[in-house]
Amino acid sequence: MKKTLLFTLIILSLLMAACSAGETTAMVEPTVAPTEAPASTEEPPAPTAEPSAPELSPEELLALLQANPWQWVSFTSPVEQFDLEMPEAYLLNFAEDGSVQIVADCNNASGGYTTDGSSLTIEVGPMTRAACPPESRSDQFVSLLGSTAIYFFEDGNLFIDLMADGGTLALTPASAEAMPDDGEGAMDGALWTNSWQWMSFTNPAEQFEIDMPENYVLTFYEDEALTIVADCNTVLGGYSDDAGALTITMGPSTLVACPPESRSDQFVQLLQGAARYFFEDGSLFIDLMADGGTLEFAPVDLAGLVDEDAIGSNMSEELIAQLDAFLQSQVYSDGGNPTLAAPGLVLLVDTPAGRYINAAGVANLEDGTPMQIDDILQIGSNTKSMTIVLLMQLVEEGLLTLDDPLSQWLPEQAALFENGDQITLRQLAQHTAGLWDYGDGIIGSGVSDPDLLEASYTPEELIQYAADNGTPYFAPGAEGKWQYSNTGYILLGMILEKVTEQPLAELYQSRIFDPLGMESAVLIEGVPQEGEITTHGYWFENGESVDTTNWNASQGWAAGAVAMSATDLATYAHQLAMGGLFQNPETLDEMLSFDPSARLGVGAPYGLGLLDVAGDGSAWGHGGQTLGFQSLWFTDPGAGIVVVGLTNSATYSADNLLNVRNILQGQGTQPFGPLTLLPVGELIPTSWAWTQFVNPAESVAIDAGAGLVIDLAKSQSVTVKSAECGEAYGAYTTDGGGQISFDLDDSSLTCEADSLAEQLVQHLQDAALWYFDNGSLVIELPADGGSLIFTYVALE
After folding, report:
1. How much helix, strand and coil, in percent to the nearest 5, is found in the chain?
2. How far is CA 447 from the centre of its chain?
3. CA distances (Å), origin 766, targets 69, 721, 727, 731, 735
4. CATH number of this structure's domain 2-178
5. Residue 96 burial (C-beta neighbours within 10 Å; 0-12, 13-18, 19+)
6. Percent share of the chain, pLDDT over 90
7. What crossing angle do the helices spanning 383-396 and 566-577 adopt, rounded to 10°?
8. pLDDT: is 235 or 555 the higher one?
9. Buried-most residue among 253, 282, 631, 706 (CB within 10 A)?
10. pLDDT single digits (tens) 590-644
11. Minimum mean pLDDT among 365-369, 459-463, 527-531, 733-737: which range?
12. Which three-class secondary structure state does DSSP give residue 560?
C-alpha cells in the first residue's frame, strides 16, 4: 500500500512540476539501491521507476552511510511533503564508532546508531535546547530521526524511511566542513585553553544571568582534573570528555556558608548534571542531562580568582606527620594483635586544606607486595548505603514508598517469615524488621571450609536459608527494638530488581558508579575475578592468618559485595553529603533520620543505611566487613571532612580509624580501642592487659594469672585492676602528640608494696610516652626506664 501511494504522489508531483516551472520535485523512495554513489546534486530527483541495479551488501551500505556528512533536503509522507529552505542547517554525520553527530538548525546533538543490513536505528543523546525561530524544523528533524526504519541510496543520495509509513527523508552529501567542529575549532580543540566564567543559565522553565560571573569559574586541566570556584567555595573535581560528551565529578570542597543570594550550591549541583559541551562564538556551552538546561561561559583569565591556599596540598606538616604515624601504627606483622592491626591499609583524609592519601603494610602476606593507594578492596556493608541510595532514588521517582509492605513486592518471601506481612521497606532499611541474620551461618562458615568459602548463592537461596534456620528477633517495628540483619538488605536488593526490571549490578553502575566516575567500583557476584580486587584478604583465627581472598561475594550481594578504591569511596561520600545523588534535599535527610534505639552493637545510632558516628549527627558514614576485608568511611559535612579507610583484614576493627577524627580535631591519636571511639565511648572504657615489660637489660613476660588490666575511658579516667588485690583509680592526660601522664590513687589496693600490681601503678605514675605497635599499646618510661606492653581485651 505504501509503494502505491508513493507512486501516486510521484505522478502528482511531476504534473505539478510541468505546470509550475521553478518548483522543486518532492523526494520519494526507490525500491532497489544502486551500486554506486555518484557526485551529489543539490536537489536529488525523484525516482520514477524501479532501479535495475543489484542490491548493495550490508558492508557497502554502511560504507556509503559513513562516507560523508548528509544534509536534509526534503521530506515526503502520506500526508505532507516539503523541501528544506536551508538544507545546510540540518546535518547528519555517521562515524565508524557508532556515534552520530546531529545539527538541527540552532541546536546540536550527539547520539548513536546501529545498522542491520538496510535497517537503521538512531538514538538521539544529549542535545542543546536553544529556542529556534518559529519557522525552524529543529524539533521535527530530531523527532523524525527517532523513528528511522531503513536506509538506501540512489544517485549518490541518502533516503531514510520511517517506521509505520511515517515518511521518507531525503539527504544529499555535505562537505565535512559543514559540520560543527564540536569544540575542535574556535578554542583550539581543548577545554583547557583558558578558564571559563559562568554568564547565564537557560532551561525550559527559567532563564537568568549571573550577577558576578567572576565568582563562578571552571578551569579544566589536560590530566582531566578540574578546579571549580563556586562563589565563596572552591572544589577540586575531575572530568571526562568523549567527543563532546562531558561528565563532571566532584572531589574535596571547602564548605563555607556563602551569603543567601549566592548560587554556590546551585552551580555545583548543575555541573554534576553535565551531559555535553560545545563552543559558539568563543563561548563555552554546557548542556545538562534530561533537558536540564544550558550553562553559558565566557573565557576569563584565572589570575587572582582561585585561592590557591583554599584547597590543594596545603595540609600542615604536623598534621601529615600525625596521620603518617597513626597509619603506620595500625600495620600488622607476625606476632601482633590482628584485632588492632591489619596486614595492609589505605587511608584517605579530605579536608578544606587538601587531601591526604597513603598506604601502609602489604597487600599479600606471602610475597610482601606493598599496599598501594589505588588498590581495590572489598567494602563489605558499606554496600548498604548504596543500596539505600538506589531505594531512595526510586522513592523520588514515585515507583515505591518506604512504607510499602514487603508483601506488596515479594509476597512469596514475605510469607516465609512470621509476621512477614507486617514488614515495611523502611524497617528493612533501618534493621527494625526483626529478621534473623543469615550472615554468620553462611558467610562465617567459610573460614574453616574452603568449599563453603567459595559456595555460590542466589538471593532467593539466602532468604530461604534465613527462613529455615532462624527465628525473628522480635516483631516488625517493635518499640525500642533493633537488630542488625543482612537478610533485610538482600530483600531490598530483590525489590530493586523487581521494580526496575534491571539487574542490581546495572543499577549500581548506571545510577551511582558511572554518574560519579567511580571507575574501580564493581558489584562482585561470585569469586572475585582478576581486577575486581587487587589485594589478598585475611581472617585471623587463634593468631594464624587464613587467606579468604576467594570468598564468593554472592553471599553478601546487596548487603555487602561491592569493591572499590579509597578514592572512589571518597567520591561517593562527597557526592552523598552534597546531595548529588538525589533531586530533593529531603531525600538525604530521610537517610539521616537516626533512631536512638537503633544502635550497631554498642556503637552508633542507625539511620537508613548510615551510621551516626559522632552521636550528635555532625559526622556520619558506615563501616563494612567481609570474610577478608574491613572498611570505614565517614564525613563531617560542616567541617568539609571525608575520611576513608580500607584494610585487608576481616578481624581488624576498622572503628580504630575513627581516631583520625581525634587527630583532625587537634586531640591527636588517643590510646583507645575501637569501642571507646564510638559515641558511647564515655561509658565504655577500653581494657588493656599488661603482658610484657621490656627495658635495655631484659624482657619480662607478665603472668596472665595476675589479671593486671588498665581501663582507659574517653573521659580520661583510668582504673588499674588486679585479680589478686583489687583496684586503683585515677585519671590520665595526653597532649595528642604521644605524651601521657597518670595520676593514680593506690590506697584501695591490698597487695604488697613489691607486688606486680603496685609495680604497674608506679610505672604508670612515671609514664612519659605512648603509641600503638602491631596492635599493642606501648607505654614508655623516661630515660630508657623500659616499656610496658599491653594487649587489647575485647568486650564480651
Report:
1. 25, 30, 45
2. 30
3. 85, 18, 18, 13, 16
4. 2.40.128.270
5. exposed
6. 58
7. 40
8. 555
9. 631
10. 999 998 877 665 567 999 999 998 888 899 999 999 999 999 999 998 888 999 9
11. 733-737
12. helix
Angle of helix 486-500 relative to helix 383-396, nearest 10 degrees?
40
Segments making up each domain of the chain, as ranges: 2-178, 191-300, 377-652, 677-793
Amino acid code (one letter) for 694: V
Place of cell 523524525: 144
Distance CA 330, CA 324 (A): 10
3-class DSSP state of 746? coil
CB-hemisphere CA count at 13 Å for 348? Answer: 25
550: cell is 576467594
Which cell numbers hold the place of 62?
Answer: 554502511
316, burial (CB in 10 Å: exposed 0-12, middle 13-18, buried 19+): exposed
Q: Above 70 in pLDDT, residue 304?
A: no
Alpha helices in 107-219 (DSSP H): 138-145
Measured CA to CA, the distance from residue 482 to residue 434 in angstroms comes to 7
Q: 421-424, long-range: CB within 8 Å, 24+ apart, which pairs?
A: 422/475, 422/476, 422/477, 423/476, 424/476, 424/477
**Residues 25, 16: Cα–Cα separation, whole Å:** 9
Condensed to tens digits (0 to 9), the pLDDT of residues 169-204 reads 999 998 877 776 543 333 334 677 678 899 999 988
Q: First CA to last CA across the chain, in angstroms?
A: 83
**Are both 2-178 and 191-300 of the same fold?**
yes
Q: Show the cell assigned to 179.
A: 559540520
Contact 416, 467 (CB under 8 A): yes
Q: Are 630 and 380 in contact (CB under 8 A)?
A: yes
DSSP state string for 636-687: EGGGTEEEEEEESBSSS-GGGGGHHHHHHTT----S--TGGGSGGGGTSPEE
Q: Model confidence over 443-463: pLDDT tens digits? A: 999 998 999 999 999 999 999
Cβ atoms of 652 and 339 closer than 8 Å: yes
616 and 592 Cβ atoms separated by less than 8 Å: no
Rg of the chain over Cα atoms, rounded to whole angstroms, equals: 33
Encode burial over 460-478: b for 16+ CB neighbours within 10 A, e otherwise: ebbbbbbbeebebbbebbe
pLDDT value, residue 680? 73
Beta bridge mates, 445: none
605-606 and 274-280 strand pairing: unpaired
Rounded (5°) CA angle 410-582-265: 170
- Contact (Cβ atoms closer than 8 angstroms) between residue 46 and residue 25: yes
Residue 271 vs residues 192, 250, 290, 354: alpha-carbon distances, Å: 16, 9, 13, 21
CATH class of 191-300: mainly beta
* 346 vs 565: CA distance, rounded Å: 9
Assigned CATH for 677-793: 2.40.128.270
What does the mean pLDDT of the chain come to? 86
User: Per DSSP, what are the bridge partners of residue 692?
Assistant: 701, 789
DSSP 505: H
Contact between 551 and 628 (Cβ < 8 Å): yes
- Residue 56: what are its φ and ψ, rounded to 5°? -80, 150
Q: Give the Cα separation of 326 and 463 in Å (integer).
A: 41
Of the candidate CATH numbers 1.10.287.110, 3.40.50.2300, 3.40.710.10, 3.40.50.1820, the domain formed by 377-652 belongs to 3.40.710.10
Q: Are 387 and 430 in contact (CB under 8 A)?
A: no
8 A C-beta contact, residue 663 and residue 319: yes
The whole-number average pLDDT for the span 54-70 is 87
